[in-house]
Design goal:
Blueprint lengths: L8 H14 L4 E6 L14 E6 L12 E3 L13 E9 L6 E8 L5 E3 L3 E2 L7 E7 L3
Parallel strand pairs: 5-6
Antiparallel strand pairs: 1-2, 1-4, 3-8, 4-5, 4-7, 6-8
C-alpha cells in the first residue's frame, strides 16, 4: 500500500497556522536527558526551565515553517543540568503539543548554552517548527 503523500506549501502553512494557535501563552519546558519516544510518553529527565510563550506564540507560517515570537525568559531556572529536549504545552500546562531536541545551533530549539544552572536565566535564541512535505 502506497504512502507517498506530498502536501503543498499552502496546505502546510494552513496546518501550521492552526497548530500555532494552540501554543498561544503555552509553556515551553526544557528537560535534561533523552527525548521520549512520543509526545504522549511521560516526560523523563529533570525539568530544568519553564518559559512562557507569547500570547501570539508564532508568526504566520512561511514555506511550511512557523517561527516563534518573543518568548518570556525563565528568570530563575528550576534545576541545573544539560538541556536535552523540550516540550511545548498548551497554556493549561498539561496538554503536550510537541517536543524536540535542544542545542545551540541547528536544533529545533536553540539556546545560548545547553548548560543550565539552577536560579539562572534561560533565554531562547531561535525556535521554529517545520512541517515536512
Amino acid at each position: 500500500m502506497a504512502n507517498n503523500i506530498r502536501t503543498s506549501i499552502v496546505a502546510r502553512n494552513a496546518e501550521l497556522d492552526a497548530l500555532a494557535v494552540l501554543a498561544n501563552s503555552g509553556k515551553l519546558r526544557i528537560y535534561s536527558g533523552t527525548q521520549p519516544a512520543t509526545p504522549e510518553t511521560a516526560a523523563s529527565g529533570v525539568l530544568l526551565a519553564e518559559l512562557t510563550m507569547n500570547a501570539t506564540a508564532f508568526a504566520a507560517a512561511v514555506n511550511g515553517v512557523i517561527t516563534a515570537n518573543a518568548i518570556t525568559q525563565d528568570s530563575s531556572n528550576d534545576a541545573s543540568g544539560t538541556a536535552g529536549y523540550y516540550r511545548l504545552l498548551k497554556s493549561d500546562g498539561t496538554t503536550v503539543l510537541w517536543d524536540g531536541e535542544v542545542g545551540t545551533s541547528g536544533a529545533d530549539l536553540n539556546l545560548n548554552s545547553v548548560a543550565i544552572s539552577s536560579g539562572a536565566i534561560t533565554q531562547v535564541t531561535a525556535f521554529t517548527y517545520t512541517l515536512p512535505q
